[in-house]
């Protein structure tokens, strides 16, 4: 019996050595071998029409007398307001900026090209306004009818309308879901075709939000592009996912 008691520690040590050797051997064989996984990129994309438009324009008047220049400019402001109202644009959708005043001078030179003096040529008053509305088609059409004001004697400079979308937050969420599902579908296809089963998600990264003109050659930007010149747009976003494969 004493012999058996003395033998037990030796047996335990031997077993421990065998187990340790097995673990070390397995670790050595597995060293340098990464767990099977797959990284995929999914795309979420949707086209939509802008629901907000801004349109800017400006006009000016020149006169030797400042009061006369103001009077002429105010008369033009009334004409512009009347024109916009006749087109169906609401008063609360129009913002007139403060008038900008500048003095015009001509430089006079002698027959040898030497500067003689500056001659005052009058005051120039400039007035700009902006229309911001959800009636996109209406404002767009109005911006094309400014020839009526030009015919009325107003020197109007009309700028291209800018188009926006007020529901971007909701659109982003929908597109993130779409891009994530697209990436998962790709990962499942790869795993299945490789004889495995898609495991748990270990990593997810979202790309930048891009808004370009629909069916255009607009380039993507690292910081995200945001097209405002086109009424019809396409938004896109990518999701990069990494899955384990069982």
Task: Summarize this structure as a short list of keywords or feature phrases.
246 residues, alpha+beta, Translation Initiation Factor IF3, Alpha-Beta Plaits, 3 domains, six-stranded antiparallel sheet, four-stranded antiparallel sheet, 36% helix, elongated, disordered N terminus
Can you offer a commentary on this structure?
The protein has helices spanning 2-30, 66-86, 136-143, 147-151, 168-193, and strands at residues 37-49, 52-63, 94-96, 100-109, 115-133, 156-158, 162-164, 198-206, 210-213, 232-245. The chain is of the alpha+beta class. The protein has three domains: 1-33; 34-49 and 167-245, Translation Initiation Factor IF3, CATH 3.30.110.170; 52-164, Alpha-Beta Plaits (2-Layer Sandwich), CATH 3.30.70.2970. The strands form two sheets. Strands 2, 3, 4, 5, 6 and 7 form a six-stranded antiparallel beta sheet that branches. It is elongated and about 90 Å long. Residues 3-7 and 12-33 have low confidence and may be disordered.
Q: How would you sum up this structure in a few lines?
A:
This protein has helices at 2-30, 66-86, 136-143, 147-151, 168-193, and strands at residues 37-49, 52-63, 94-96, 100-109, 115-133, 156-158, 162-164, 198-206, 210-213, 232-245. With 246 residues, it is α+β, with helices and mostly antiparallel strands.
